[in-house]
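Appendix B. Chain record.
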Amino acid sequence: MTNILVLYYSNNGATESLARQVCTGVDSIENAVAVLRTVPSVSTVCESTEKLIPSNGPPYVNKKDLANCSGLIMGSPTYFGNMAAPLKYFLDSTSSEWLSGVLAGKPAGFFTSSSSPHVGQESTLLSMAIPLLHHGMIIVGIPYTLKEISTTKSGGGPYGASHITWNRDNEELTNEEKKVAQVIGKRVTQIAKKLILK
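Structure tokens predicted for this chain:
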């Protein structure tokens, strides 16, 4: 079985909606399963801790999830053109995994959401790629052969899947946004399966 870790942080539900579409793409590939995980919030004013198990939604990620996955697809809301602090906080704690190379050679993809366009979605996707390049991961994008990349008036691009809420509910994805999110799930999974065979 090919396990693909879909790791995200979501504050208002939009990024979680994308994560679930990414999981749909992963699960559509034979003998593959999406492992959905999130990260706890962090405090800007003091050291704080969350409950060990979230009150709802998927469980929090742990380091074993990194070792056990065949690929990783990571998502974050766009905050000033960067990934959210809780996701970066988790990544900053993965020095041991970097030293042991548990992610080296595995494929990785990305997704993000924002309330409006032109607020740094592409730089957010790239900000998530940088630490995973240090981990030795193989970065997977979305080719322009996917027609939705050229026709979308909402989210999605070659760097990864994205969602723009505009005046819609946070969870309300367009059909194109859903398609692009599912495709990044499929592509990372297909590449992971080929890498496992070698």
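Further analysis of this model is presented in Appendix C.
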